[in-house]
Amino acid sequence: MALQASNSQQPAADWDEAQCKGALAHLEKLQEQLDELRLTIPRIIQPLRTAHTTPAAFYADFRQAAVGANKNISKFKVVWQSQETQSIFEHAKESQKTDPDLSACVRVPKYGWVDTLENEKEAAGAIEKEDQVMMLKNEELDITGIVDAFKHEHPKFKVNLEADNQLIHIVFRLPTLLMRFRVVRRKEANGNYKLDAECVGKMPLFPAITRCLASRPRPNDLKYLLDMITAYTNTRRASCVKCTKLVDSSGMTPAARRSKRVESPEGASDIVWEALHERCL
Q1: What would the pLDDT profile of 158-201 be if each residue is shown by its tens digit?
Q2: Is residue 120 in a domain?
Q3: SS3 content of the chain, % helix, strand, coil (to 5)
Q4: What is the tally of structural domains in the chain?
Q5: How far, in Å, are 14, 91, 103, 110 from residue 107 at the CA level?
Q6: Are residues 32 and 148 in the same domain?
Q7: Of 171, 237, 209, the residue nearest 28 (C-alpha)
Q8: Which tens digits make up the pLDDT trace of 215-226?
Q9: Read out DSSP for 252-270?
Q10: Does the residue 54 lie in any domain?
Q11: Is residue 32 a contact partner of residue 203, using CB atoms and an 8 Å limit?
Q12: Which domain holds residue 96?
């Protein structure tokens, strides 16, 4: 949410609720960029720890990692120095001069403001959204039961079922990352239903996850999709099962999850989820 120019000119003026939420959402996005920069050094040194067939291949790999890291730092610098960010900082300084008691800050959540703004926008445009998506009921599928069971299995997840049970929002927090997913159930022209899933966010990893969700097996199985989304709880630490690396040559952590059935020595069968880079699918 862009702040008005007048805010930067009069930082001591009181902000309304919408401006405060917009500022908190902006700072949350800034924090996400900063968290992503923590992987800068591992990404740069990864080529040094990888065997290459030729010096040229090593140079290309190392150069790509260094250039990618520099681009990420430059993007963060642009946002940090932007008028919007500096206006927020200036307003905070002036506000603290007016009232130095910051005890009330502990009651303000640090994360979730981006999601709050998105939910408010979606609520305001609910009628228009239903017309565009054209989602219809399917009495044969117990969506409520599947989602309720999912909530019970994952009590730390924030799960909302909306739009006549055809829209599912899922949010969960990792140590340095907020994961937000949106699942939409649409009726196609042939009368069949389709499940569209999206990982919401602007980080390069999130569109990659969306693409990998779109190419999933069993595309019309809601429970399978929800289980796949759960597998992203190890996003920051999972290495690719194919190349065994944490990040690929573009500095991306594994964006895909695929299920695999394994058997124990006792003969029991279970499903495990493996992480893969999008390029390793």
Answers
A1: 999 998 888 999 999 998 889 999 999 888 787 778 899 999 98
A2: no
A3: 50, 15, 35
A4: 2
A5: 19, 20, 8, 9
A6: no
A7: 171
A8: 998 888 899 999
A9: PPP-EEEEEEEE-TTS-EE
A10: yes
A11: yes
A12: 5-107
